[in-house]
Amino acid sequence: MKMKSSQMLKGVLDSCVLMVLSRKPYYGYDLIDKLNDYGFSITQGTLYPLLIRLEKKGYVQSYYEESNSGPRRKYYRITDAGRADVDEFFHIMVDMSKAIGNVIEDYRRNSHEEA
Amino acid sequence: MKKHKLSEIRAMKKERCEKVDAIDKRLQGADQERVEKIILYIVSKNLDPYVETKIIIDVIDIINDGLDRGMSLEEILGDDDKAFVDDIAAEYKKSYKYLIGSAGGAAAIYMLGIMLFSLPAMIKTHNLRISIYGGELFLFLAFLMAGLFIVEYIVKTTYDDMAKSRFVLPVIALGAAFCLAILTWNQLFFTIHVAVAVIIVLAGYLIFDLLS
Q: Which of B6, B67, B76, B161 is most buried, by the most CB atoms less than 10 A from its CB?
């Protein structure tokens, strides 16, 4: 189950991270907190390789900023290429989530009727 | 890949050493061992030395920040360190710069050793040429190969066993180098001027410093 969900997550997490970054630049742990607030359950073990992947694709840029509470922090901001990718993902996901929602609703209704 | 200034590379190497040292002191027991394994596994990926250093610094910063927040290593990195490093390494091409750097360092050490060994004879005879014999050259190559293989074995077996087939080629190469060393023990291969030897030492050290 865990394996299945992590594979499903991999497919959409890149774009979800870009969506969060499209509002403002984030530092790694703040980004994790934000994503976990949305209901994801991820660690730096998942996020750091993902951010490297996005940076290599040119979708995000990293930069350092001094921190008041310790050493410098690495922030990530979305690029124009990242915005273009996330816009495309948004339109696809809106349609797809409607379709998936319909299937789930239908499945739930049938399950209740059978029970 | 973006070119980096020598001063920037040196500063990063220094920062990496300091951070590895500091995290090693900060952690204890199983956590310390776990982070050592992660770093070793990153090294085993044969990434460009600059990328490798950057990643190690980032990972240590992530761990330090997490620890400062009162998190455990499990909460910081999750439960699959191998997958974590594999995911990172998948984004970069392999680089064999470290091998060239090691070869440069080895050439410098070898030539320096031969120079020091030949120094009394050079002073005595006023002959500034150094004799290179087959035996010492192949013996040195054998030790160099053995050293590289031991390092390779340690880093590659961080999370997995090494297949027995991977031992075949190094063992054959090692055996061949020892045989050639015995066969050419007193055979003069060539002579070089001491100035050339000094240039080889300096060039070898420079290559080692830049690429390793």
A: B76
